[in-house]
Amino acid sequence: MGPVKDSEKKARIMGHIESGIREGAALKLDGRKNIDITGDYPDTCFLGPTIFENVKPDMTIAREEIFGPVMSVLRAGNLDKAIEMCNSSNYGNGNAIFTSDGKSAREFQYRVTSGNVGINIGIVAPMAFFPFSGMKDSFFGILHTMGQEAVRFFTESKVVIQRWL
Question: CATH number for the domain including 23?
Answer without folding.
Answer: 3.40.309.10
